[in-house]
Design brief:
281 residues; mainly alpha; globular
């Protein structure tokens, strides 16, 4: 989309005093305004949004943990519902982030032309992209907080949470959300039709979902599958959530957090660059 506002945004992003990283202007306080806009829209349907954030993971946990769990032998001393609960938390955090950034982000970009309208304000393309990433991460974090409440309610019956360290999953969820939102924003910068969104879900999200160790131990798979699992970001998130739920702080957990912390910044840069390229051309 070519416009005078886009050209002004490009000039503003390259002016004196603007910090850049590899040719992309770093987002600033205007990003907060973009995020606040998304929060205001979310609050308009706050009750429904929160109900969905609680109902879906609760149903998944009960069906997979209790019904399916009767037929699953993990090969070690643990109830399946206790094993799968952290995976459900991570799974719905990812789905919340991806759903908001993929479908919501594309609609704001291509259908509603909301981003074009934002460019008529002091916000730059970089601020819009960063706002999308941060908001996607917040949606995932809200999902984790909601599911943790469910787990806390069910813990007296099934012992799902063994330590207050589980609260640390909330900041980890935000870091995970930044990663997955960045991946999606980078993709919608190239998506030309709404049909392309399903390609992303089928080709990217489905393998990440199934081969994350959320529903079965990865160490029971062949070596090559375990190696592939190491490159799966959701694998590290599930391992962190599972360890924190059990009250375990180990070097392995630190390694998983480090993996996320190292991979996320380059993906955020790629996402900002991709969406900026789409908005300013």
């Amino acid at each position: 989309m070519v416009s005078m506002t886009a050209r002004r945004s490009r000039v503003a992003g390259a002016g004196w005093g603007v910090r850049t990283w590899l040719g992309v202007a770093l987002p600033d306080r205007r990003t907060i305004a973009v995020v606040r806009r998304h929060i205001d829209v979310y609050r308009e349907l706050l009750f429904i949004n929160l109900m969905l954030a609680v109902a879906e993971p609760t149903l998944a946990l009960l069906v997979m943990g209790l019904a399916l769990g009767q037929f699953v032998d993990l090969g070690f001393d643990a109830e399946y519902i206790v094993f799968v609960a952290p995976g459900v938390v991570a799974m719905f955090a990812m789905f919340s982030t991806v759903g908001e950034s993929l479908w919501g982000g594309y609609l704001r970009l291509a259908q509603q032309d909301l981003f074009g309208a934002m460019l008529a304000t002091p916000a730059r393309a970089e601020d819009i992209a960063a706002g999308e990433i941060v908001w996607g991460a917040l949606r995932g974090t809200i999902s984790v907080a909601a599911v943790l409440i469910v787990l806390a309610v069910l813990t007296p019956a099934w012992g799902l949470i063994a330590s207050p360290l589980v609260l640390l999953t909330i900041p980890v969820a935000f870091l995970m959300g930044l990663l997955f939102a960045a991946l999606v924003v980078a993709y919608i910068g190239y998506a030309r039709t709404i049909h392309h969104l399903m390609y992303y879900f089928t080709i990217v999200i489905n393998p990440i979902f199934w081969f994350s160790g959320a529903f079965f131990p990865l160490d029971q798979l062949p070596g090559w599958a375990q190696t592939l699992g190491w490159f799966n970001p959701l694998t590290h998130v599930v391992d962190i959530f599972r360890a924190l739920s059990a009250g375990e702080l180990t070097w392995a957990v630190a390694g998983d957090v480090l993996w996320l912390a190292v991979v996320t910044p380059p993906l955020c840069w790629l996402a900002i660059w991709s969406l900026r390229r789409r908005l300013i051309r």
